[in-house]
Write a structure and sequence with these properties.
Length: about 525
């Protein structure tokens, strides 16, 4: 069912739609009427969900990953609009601009602070949920694919593997990430040391800009194309689709997970990993997952460090590499699993060994929780004594985890300014810290206070001036924009952490393409024209 002629204003009247429309007419009515006139294709009623819709809550919760932002106290949108075509997105931008409605855009719902579906600083607001824009067109002949923003990275991997066993794409480890937002932050994965980030392998894009224009790379220009590939989501426009460059992968790859506890020398082994991880063969990616586990005694806990890896090659070749470069790991043939690249995706994502690749098409996350996260980049090994202090702090918290991801390889050869993602040469590894809980807001502040103390403890041993952070692990503790009060100097505090010197160029691009700051959120890039 689509809007009838009774729901359509004349073209002349639409030109005068604005925020000054009588308050007796609801936001949703104004928005729906405006959509029906401004979209080149009809807009089904079933794409618009209001607070009174029976499906509103299920749609809101469908892809939201951090349950903190689904609590009753979290602000809720007036409308969730789920466009079916790029023209629907275009019309939504035009209408939100005319009506003065604040917009948030969600592709996969993985924003760590929920800014794609929650506004802590402006109300009312609406959410454009791109989940229905998920077509994927793979062209093996040209080693490329066009991928709509609502598709998950797992769906992209599956469709590539469906066409070729020797092609892949170097992006996320978590397969339910929405590719639209994922690439805007950089998009790292287990092949980053060989091929770089997802953002390093984008060759074109389609966006809707702040004026409602649909633009490809040529039309948007190289400055804007640079900004959207790592400059963070929600600042420059709405990503409709990416054209990605596929990479060649071996028909057989090897994965393994080797775990060591404190009693098995975990601290010394981790110190050694810090010294070699960025220098290993670029075909080898070994990350470390660290968390408390039950110890041998009743009620005792210890720390487990799990070395979780992908090698782009055979087990025999892998064993030669580790024997030469990281013998302390004591990797054996028994530890190694030879498999296809697509099945390695499932393994690295932590799915059961009997899982088939078709699960990637379900695009559903089964591990939602309440959490708070932070990140660091490390440029010199962290001493063993500091690690021991970190373990003591971890054993004080219920469900903490930290994941250490190696850099080096091609990441050290790409310029810091090639994309807005600046964490390249000199970075040994990145740290992600998380604390997870399951009892809502009952003890929420206790967990948040814990991770803040732990982050402070790690300060002297990580990057400095600035203390760098990863924008896709968004952390509002670093600073926030305010409603109608966006300060360049204030934004630079967190902007420099995410983007280093690239922040200044991002501000210049923002000023050029969105001077009125239509696309904005708690940590969006501000334009110079907005007075502090």
């Amino acid at each position: 069912m689509v809007f009838s002629i009774k729901h359509i204003f004349s073209l002349v009247s639409v030109l005068f739609l604005s925020a000054s429309l009588t308050t007796s007419v609801s936001v949703e009515e104004n928005f729906a009427k405006c959509l029906s006139v401004n979209s080149k294709l009809s807009v089904p009623i079933s794409t618009i969900y209001t607070n009174n819709s029976s499906s509103f809550t299920s749609i809101l919760q469908s892809s939201a990953q951090n349950l903190r932002y689904l609590l009753p106290s979290a602000p809720k949108p007036e409308i969730i609009f789920t466009p079916l075509t790029e023209f629907h997105v275009q019309a939504a931008v035009m209408c939100a601009r005319k009506l003065g409605i604040h917009v948030r855009v969600r592709s996969g719902g993985h924003d760590y602070e929920g800014v794609s579906y929650v506004s802590e600083i402006e109300s009312p607001f609406i959410v454009l949920d791109l989940a229905r824009l998920r077509s994927i067109s793979v062209d093996i002949k040209s080693s490329s694919a066009w991928v709509q923003a609502g598709a998950t990275i797992g769906e992209v991997y599956y469709r590539i593997a469906e066409k070729s066993k020797v092609h892949g794409f170097p992006a996320g480890l978590c397969t339910t990430l929405g590719i639209g937002g994922h690439i805007t932050g950089g998009a790292y994965g287990s092949m980053m040391r060989k091929f770089g980030l997802g953002a390093d392998n984008v060759i074109d894009a389609m966006i809707v800009d702040a004026n409602g224009r649909i633009l490809d790379r040529k039309a948007m220009g190289e400055d804007l194309f640079w900004a959207i590939r790592g400059g963070g989501g929600g600042s420059f426009g709405i990503i409709l689709s990416w054209k990605i460059k596929l990479v060649r992968v071996p028909a057989t790859v090897t994965v393994f997970t080797v775990t060591r506890t404190l009693e098995q020398g975990a601290t010394k082994l981790l110190y050694r990993w810090q010294q070699v991880a960025d220098k290993l063969d670029e075909n080898l990616f070994i990350r470390v997952l660290i968390q408390p586990v039950n110890g041998s005694g009743i009620g005792n806990r210890t720390i487990a460090t799990s070395y979780n890896a992908l090698f782009l090659g055979s087990a025999n070749r892998l064993l030669k590499v580790t024997k030469k470069s990281f013998p302390e790991l004591n990797l054996t043939k028994k530890d190694c699993i030879e498999t296809s690249w697509i099945k390695s995706v499932l393994y690295i994502d932590g799915l059961p060994s009997n899982t088939t690749p078709e699960v990637l098409l379900e695009a559903k996350s089964l591990n939602k929780a309440y959490f708070k996260a932070k990140s660091d980049f490390v440029q010199k090994p962290i001493p063993e004594t500091v690690l021991e202090g970190l373990w003591k702090r971890f054993l004080q918290e219920d469900n903490p985890i930290t994941i250490w991801n190696p850099y080096g390889g091609i990441m050290s050869k790409i310029s810091e300014s090639a994309t807005p993602f600046p964490h390249r040469k000199g970075t040994l590894f990145k740290i992600q810290y998380l604390t997870v809980w399951f009892d809502g807001d009952k003890n929420q502040q206790k967990h948040i206070n814990w991770i803040r103390r732990m982050y402070k403890y790690m300060g002297p041993y990580v990057s400095s001036s600035p203390r760098a952070a990863y924008v896709n692990y968004r952390d509002l503790d670093l600073g926030m924009n305010k409603k109608n009060h966006t300060s360049i100097n204030q934004a630079k505090i967190w902007g420099a952490k995410y983007f280093k010197d690239n922040f200044n160029r991002l501000v210049n691009v923002k000023t050029k393409v969105d001077p009125s700051n239509f696309f904005r959120h708690e940590q969006s890039i501000p334009p110079i024209s907005v007075k502090s």
